[in-house]
Design brief:
- The protein contains seven helices and nine strands; from the N terminus they run βββαβαβαβαββααβα.
- It is α/β, with parallel strands linked by helices and 245 residues long.
- The protein has one domain: Spore Coat Polysaccharide Biosynthesis Protein SpsA, Chain A, CATH 3.90.550.10.
- Helix 3 crosses helix 5.
Length: 245
């Protein structure tokens, strides 16, 4: 049984609107593309055995070059992404399934979420082994409004009962692949399926939550880039001071 990271980065990052029109996962932050920062978290984690990457077809060769240049040795495969993020994940899962046992643990993670804490990865693996899956979450600090029209809120849930799902989202390999196969039969375009947690709940499958770290942001906007740079500088300072490894 292996612990496998599935890193999906098949998008082109249109919401970021960078001037060079480079997919956001390849933008440099402190001398490295964002996706390399992400991959290094799993490369250095002693519980991760293999990494599979789903990438846009136009950047597959470039991704291979980056993996070699930055010595990401745990990468076992780089597949072409699909029309949606869930298609991309499915492609990577299919390759992982062909090369690993069904009871392997897979951690599905955004290529542009480069600041997940090592202990969160460990908690995901432990929870998935004990409960079958794990969804990284943080409690919401803002009031959440539910609105269909974007103008009038129809429901305001109690803040103490609201959480934001992040990544990784972790499963037994055979279970997450079976869930995808079921969804592809009834909803082949993955309409409104934004992540594996949504996929599971749409199929009325139980999920288990684990607490994540608040710095585990997904890079979507320019403001997120500023936050990421600050987080990386802070981490580097902590290493220099000997406060973290």
């Amino acid at each position: 049984m292996s612990n496998i990271a599935i890193i999906f980065a098949g998008g082109v990052g249109q919401r970021l609107n960078n001037k060079d029109n480079i997919p956001k996962q390849f933008l440099n932050v402190n001398g490295k593309p964002i996706i390399i920062h992400t991959l290094e978290l799993f490369e250095k984690h002693n519980e991760i055995d293999k990494i599979y990457i789903a990438i846009h077809k136009d950047y597959q060769d470039y991704m291979k070059d980056l993996v070699k240049h930055f010595y990401i040795t745990k990468v076992s495969g780089i597949v072409v992404g699909g029309a949606t993020s869930q298609d991309s994940i499915y492609n990577a899962l299919k390759l992982a399934s062909a090369e690993n046992s069904d009871d392997s643990i897979v951690l599905v993670h955004d290529g542009v979420r480069p600041n997940v804490a090592s202990e969160v990865i460990s908690k995901n693996i432990k929870c998935a082994k004990e409960n079958g899956n794990a969804i990284t979450c943080t409690s919401c600090q803002e009031t959440i409004l539910v609105s269909k029209d974007g103008i009038n809120p129809e429901h305001v849930p109690y803040r103490k009962e609201t959480y934001a799902a992040q990544a990784p989202q972790t499963f037994k390999l055979k279970d997450i692949l079976n869930a995808h196969d079921k969804m592809r039969k009834i909803n082949p375009n993955y309409t409104d399926i934004v992540d594996a947690c949504t996929l599971y709940k749409t199929l009325n499958l139980p999920v288990c939550m684990v607490e994540g770290n608040r710095g585990n942001i997904k890079i979507t906007t320019i403001e997120d880039m500023y936050i990421l740079r600050a987080l990386i500088r802070y981490k580097e300072d902590m290493v220099i001071l000997g406060l973290i490894d």
